[in-house]
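Recall that a protein's primary structure is simply its ordered list of amino acids. Everything else, from secondary elements to tertiary packing, is in principle encoded there. The following example makes that idea concrete.
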Amino acid sequence: MAGILDARPKVGYFYTGKTHLSYISERIRSIKVSDVKSVPVVVDEATSIYDSIVLMFLEDVGSIFVTNNGYLSGVVSRKDFIKSALGGMDLNKMPIGMIMTRMPNVIFVKDDDNVLEAAMKLIDHEIDSLPVVEEEKGKGYKVIGRVTKTTITRLFVELGKGE
């Protein structure tokens, strides 16, 4: 059943009190970030801005996650690259760590968060992607995936098709 009707022996079918919208809401809340995350695009802080721009275009992404010693230290977007290019910097010599948004200003999600929380963070903070992280106590956050607006849209389409 769609969750709107339920059945009991000797009683028959009865209305559960749930609407089709509350069923959809429950379904979305049950989907975890770990079920929909994709492979992250990650560079080290010392990587040049030029090399990072090339990587962004080769990977066809809107943002790149930046690490230091393997732990998330920041994120850089297309807007950051445009600002640095217009500023007249030497993109081959300047490290990406100079233009990135640094921790703790990076918004992220964890594997066990649900996709509704991830979508709300994307909208509330007006960003294109979120790093999916795994916390290592006392050390920092390891980047293990990413969730983007495309990820959420793809999920919405799959749910609409009934897949």
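The domain at 31-161 is CATH 3.10.580.10 (CBS-domain). The radius of gyration is 21 Å.
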